[in-house]
Amino acid sequence: MPLGRKGRTGWILLTAAALLVGLAVVGWSFMRDGELTAGAPGTASGSAAGGPSASPLNRSRAARLSEQLTSGKEAELRAALALPSDQALEPAAVKQLASLGSISFDLDTFTYLDGQTAEVQGVVDNPPDGTIPNWTFTVLYLGREWKLVDGRPKG
Questions:
Q1: pLDDT tens, residue by residue, 2-17
Q2: SS (H, E, C) the chain
């Protein structure tokens, strides 16, 4: 069954988002390895007491993260992602992420995966066609703030 224009656009947005997430994961892996081996505060298993080494995502950072991810500006998007500064972004990624509209993070769902990595649920205002608005986001505490590593439709 051939896809209409709207269906193709949704799949293109989803593919671009997946590519961006893949780049972020690769960048996160390199940056995290470098940060942990350079003796940065915290460890992969948490603080010396065994707990998280970063404070939970707060309301103001969550709002700023949403603004940065959907701003339509490359510099803002880069500031929100955990990826190396020299990592190339897909040219259409900025526009496609901006088309998602606002992202509302549900801070009550914030769950640490380790001392510096966590997951949080959120709702995307304008999800790509064929996807649901409820997403799961993985964030990394890097440079004293939470940055996006991954975002995917929940389910």
A1: 545 555 455 444 444 5
A2: CCCCHHHHHHHHHHHHHHHHHHHHHHHHHHHHHHHHHCCCCCECCECCCCCCCCCCCCHHHHHHHHHHHCCCCHHHHHHHECCCCCCCCCCCHHHHHHCCCCEEEEEEEEEECCCCEEEEEEEECCCCCCCCCEEEEEEEEECCEEEEEEEEECC
